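Priority: medium. Attachment 1 of 2:
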């Protein structure tokens, strides 16, 4: 599923872009649902904009409604503390200063969104347009939760996505 690979790429780039000093030897704890969802929520405005650039023939992605853009932009600030917590986890013990810097999240957003757009193939555009336009009525937090859940599901099959430090989805009992 292409969208889950895009979601996986987003978190991968978030971790790699924010950290040049992370220790490869120390085991990092996984990101909680809330942290992963917050990272997606913070990146939503940039990711949607880049999807529109990658898919200029698609009506919704090319020109999302002003109400949708206002809603996803309004969701960035409330998600920022949890997103920074996720970046802190990705960086490990020595990365707190970077994660707490005022430049960390803008840098991650600047790097991640274009990286996601580069993964989009023209054949993906109609499906992405349909998915995003159908999910657009959701609040930003729920939209971000869908992307995080897709990432969690994709990690059940290692062939579909890179392994990222996001906690696995709880199995029903």
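Attachment 2 of 2:
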């Amino acid at each position: 599923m292409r969208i889950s690979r895009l979601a996986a790429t987003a978190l991968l780039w978030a971790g790699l872009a924010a950290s040049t000093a992370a220790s490869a030897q120390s085991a990092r704890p996984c990101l909680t649902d809330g942290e992963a969802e917050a990272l997606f929520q913070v990146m939503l405005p940039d990711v949607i904009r880049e999807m529109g650039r990658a898919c200029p023939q698609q009506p919704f992605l090319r020109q999302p409604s002003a109400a949708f853009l206002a809603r996803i932009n309004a969701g960035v600030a409330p998600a920022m503390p949890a997103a920074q917590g996720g970046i802190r986890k990705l960086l490990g013990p020595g990365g707190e200063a970077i994660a707490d810097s005022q430049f960390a999240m803008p840098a991650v957003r600047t790097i991640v969104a274009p990286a996601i757009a580069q993964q989009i193939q023209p054949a993906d555009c109609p499906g992405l347009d349909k998915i995003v336009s159908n999910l657009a009525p959701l609040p930003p937090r729920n939209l971000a939760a869908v992307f995080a859940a897709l990432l969690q599901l994709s990690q059940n099959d290692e062939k579909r996505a890179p392994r990222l430090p996001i906690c696995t989805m709880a199995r029903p009992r």
